[in-house]
Amino acid sequence: GAVVSQHPSRVICKSGTSVKIECRSLDFQATTMFWYRQFPKQSLMLMATSNEGSKATYEQGVEKDKFLINHASLTLSTLTVTSAHPEDSSFYICSAREQQETQYFGPGTRLLVL
Amino acid sequence: QKEVEQNSGPLSVPEGAIASLNCTYSDRGSQSFFWYRQYSGKSPELIMFIYSNGDKEDGRFTAQLNKASQYVSLLIRDSQPSDSATYLCAVKGNTGFQKLVFGTGTRLLVSP
């Protein structure tokens, strides 16, 4: 299967700071990338969908000014959590897809905001 | 009604048995169906996908699709303790970005 990487795998930050998470497709061109969030013992929650070179489409209830998504190339998308607060602590997972093919997930980034 | 429904479980089976995981979906126009496995604290990994009615086998895994009944299942033969995880059913939508719609997952416990 295709490989998707995420960096960092774990991050701890102070409240009020911003955190950037990178998602890369290593062996294919990801025309579409997705960002999910998952709280403990809960389902995956889709936050936003992004196509390369276009603005991200956010799901209802997700603040686009707080969660900045940039899909600058066919292999890289970034999620920036701005002015992070403890309630933003979660497991953030990206996934990537080439054209209409299968969606593959990155290993996830665990964010802890103190 | 949820778009993709799964029994949350846990489904407990003894080692060596067949585990049967079920999923129903509401969008009759859905064409693509996926099973992901998620270990605790990890991200989902793709197990299988199926597009056509009938069975699709891959090793110990068999996916079954019945579009008329809007039902998809995953059978795991010779279950192993290492199969213990949450299994997510996902259905690809037909509109917009064709996003995957996930069920809440079924937790499988395989006891030695």
Radius of gyration of chain A: 13 Å
Can you tell me the overall shape of chain A?
Answer: globular
**Mean of residue pLDDT of chain B?**
93
Structural class by SSE content of chain B: mainly beta
- Low-pLDDT stretches of chain B are none
- Look at the helices and sheets of chain A and give the structural class: mainly beta
Beta content of chain B comes to over 45%
Defining traits:
heterodimer; A: 114 residues; mainly beta; 7-stranded mixed β-sheet; 4-stranded antiparallel β-sheet; 0% helix; B: 112 residues; 6-stranded mixed β-sheet; 5-stranded antiparallel β-sheet; 11 strands
What does this structure look like?
The complex is a heterodimer of chains A (114) and B (112). Chain A is globular. In chain A, strand 7 and strand 8 (76-81) form a beta hairpin. By secondary structure, chain A is an all-beta fold. Chain A is built from no helices and 11 strands. Chain A has strands spanning 4-7, 10-13, 19-25, 32-38, 45-51, 57-58, 67-73, 76-81, 90-97, 103-105, 109-113. In chain A, strands 2, 4, 5, 6, 9, 10 and 11 form a 7-stranded mixed β-sheet that branches. Chain B is built from no helices and 11 strands. Chain B has strands spanning 4-5, 11-14, 19-25, 33-38, 45-50, 54-58, 61-66, 71-76, 85-92, 100-102, 106-111. Chain B has 112 residues and is mostly beta strands. Chain B is 0% helix and 53% strand. The interface between A and B is medium-sized, with 19 and 20 residues.
